[in-house]
Amino acid sequence: MRIGLLADLHANREAVEACLSALVRADCTHWVFLGDLVGYGADPGWVVDIVRTHVRDGAVAVLGNHDQAIAHPGDRMHEQALAAIDWTRTQLDASQQAFLAALPLQVEEEDRLYVHANAWDPAGWSYVASRLAATHSLSATTAWLTFCGHVHDPALYFSQPGDAALFQPQPGVPIPLATSRRWLAIPGACGQPRDGNPAAACAWLDTANGQLCFLRVPYDHERAAAKIRAASLPDAFAQRLLTGT
Known about the structure:
Blueprint: E1 2-6, H1 13-25, E2 30-33, H2 44-56, E3 60-61, H3 65-69, H4 79-91, H5 94-101, E4 106-109, E5 112-115, H6 131-139, E6 145-147, E7 155-158, E8 165-167, E9 175-176, E10 183-186, E11 200-206, E12 211-217, H7 221-230, H8 235-243
Parallel strand pairs: 1-2, 2-3, 5-6, 6-10
Antiparallel strand pairs: 1-11, 4-5, 7-8, 7-10, 9-12, 11-12
Helix pairs in contact: 7-8
């Protein structure tokens, strides 16, 4: 089985369409959505609907902090992000909002854990942005392979004595994951990359041979940015799509 993984879709229809198409071409037949379906982007309804359709067909989706904020805004988001959440709420009908509210914080599937933020406190929304944080997350689960979103940069960590090691994946190059190690993979943001590359990020896992491959997928980020501006959302969100920062 080959699993397609998308994180941080952020209401970016163009990026999601491009990643789904690329993963279909890579022979993916199973799907995992690692949270933050909404926020920042201009097409929240479309993204929620496409993920909901996949979930009805057997896909996995987990709750992200932006998804949770539709019902419970909280106090951890900056002003612009909250403005986007307020706007997003007006774009979603009751059934779409209910779908987001019902998403689980984490899902275990065979030897894999899917979670948006981290394994040690999924509802606390702390980032796995360092070797120490990766070690903390790996220590909180017995899963051989953990997939996270939340951090918008692709990364791959693996267990070793002491803190986890960081491996920087190269797009399009399959990585054999040794069964003697435990792994934590962050596919990167589909809908709002922040590593200086505007191409959408996603990944696939081949469960038969234990290979993981990170992808970067060019898409019409200028159109997605123009839609953000047309919706009168904060311009910074459009600019991020153009620069990937």
